[in-house]
Task: structure prediction
Amino acid sequence: MAKVTPSRASARVVPLRKGTTLEMVRLACPDDAQVHRISESFGLSLIDSDGIRTAHKDFIVETAQSLRDGLAERAMQIHLQRIVGAYVSSAFGAGQFYSRAVTEARDATAKAANDSRDEDRDGPVGFDSAAQRRREFAADMALQAHALCMAAEGAAAAYEEVVGESWKPFERLAETSGPTVDRRAAEVQMAALG
Result:
């Protein structure tokens, strides 16, 4: 009986774990125009979007300049890659949280509009309804998500200024569920024993 050995010619394709991009952040977070409408509708203070973006860009560029003597070019790139990645991840998380808050506010508002539901009626005079509180919470989350988006954009602009190329998320190899080195070694040893 002949043994069949697997062909070494067929290489295994290892998938990449995709990172969060700046474009994903922009899609998840409200833009300048939407934040302006929200601020006016809810009586909230306006956010200085350009100021946040510029402050974060300047801060990271200044930090990078102070590190120039201590870091090699590649080390600086890796360091800034991680910093911008943290800003982008934070903004994306805030954008997702904002989206959930909007969904909950819409659901609560729709339930409150139903005249046959007693549990969703407004509370005592002088207190906001549950739907109103959820709308206000969603508005607050919109401003926070937008502010963090502006910070991420500033960080990415700093990366481009210091490194000389556009920031892209780090993509690592996905964890594989294949056999470990020890297991493969054991299989080879057992095959040799017959």
User: Anything to note?
Assistant: Residues 7-11 have pLDDT under 50 and may be disordered. The chain has one domain: 18-115+127-169. The beta strands are 16-17, 172-173. Residues 73-112 form the longest helix (40 residues).
